[in-house]
Amino acid sequence: MILISSLTTHAAWVLTVAFVISLVYELYRATWKAGTSRHDTMRAFVMQGIALYGTAGVVITLLFRRAAGSELLALGFAVLMILISIFYYNPKVLLERRPQTVDWVEDLVFTGLLFVAAAQLAYSVSAA
After folding, report:
1. How many domains does the chain have?
2. With contact defined as beta carbons under 8 Å apart, do 7 and 62 qualify?
3. Mean pLDDT, to the nearest integer, of 53-64?
4. How many CB atoms lie within 10 A of CB 40?
5. Which domain, by its residues, includes 70?
6. Is residue 2 over pLDDT 60?
7. Which of 124, 90, 128, 100 is nearest to 14 (CA)?
8. What average pLDDT is seen over the chain?
9. Least confident interval from 4-8, 33-37, 60-64, 119-123
10. Spatial distance between the Cα atoms of 5 and 22, rounded to a whole number of angstroms
11. Residue 115 Cα distances to 34, 37, 66, 96, 119, angstroms
């Protein structure tokens, strides 16, 4: 049980780091790169950010509190975010932004961290 709790806590921290990186990056795109694409505006940042980061915050908080069903919820959320990253964000949003090195690195780090969290949560759920 200690191992499972530890995996859940680590997954919560991995998701926290992933979404903080994403939040900082999206704020950078909305301010310093404003107007590069239709996705790089403060309006887009606020409209999408409230839903995305609000949901992530709730999921992460539930994981840290070890709420019943939070591991399965977080696993589903991480897998959904991976699918969105691969099949929507990369081929559509990222390419419209005329990506440079920082954009590709952020995308790979964010998606990679989601995979790490999903693996930890899958193991935790399957072992419980």
Report:
1. 1
2. no
3. 98
4. 21
5. 2-127
6. no
7. 124
8. 95
9. 4-8
10. 26
11. 29, 28, 20, 24, 6
**For 27-38, how does the pLDDT look when each residue is reduced to its tens digit (9 = 90+)?**
999 999 999 999
Q: Is the dihedral of CA 108, 111, 117, 122 positive or negative?
A: negative
Instruction: Name the burial class of residue 90, with classes exposed (0-12), middle (13-18) and buried (19+) by CB atoms within 10 angstroms of its CB.
Output: middle
pTM above threshold 0.90: yes
Q: How many CB atoms lie within 10 A of CB 30?
A: 20
* Assigned token pair, 46: 């606020």
Residue 31 CB neighbour total at 10 angstroms: 12
| CA dihedral of residues 98, 104, 110, 111 (deg, nearest 10) | 100
Cα R_g (the chain), whole angstroms: 15
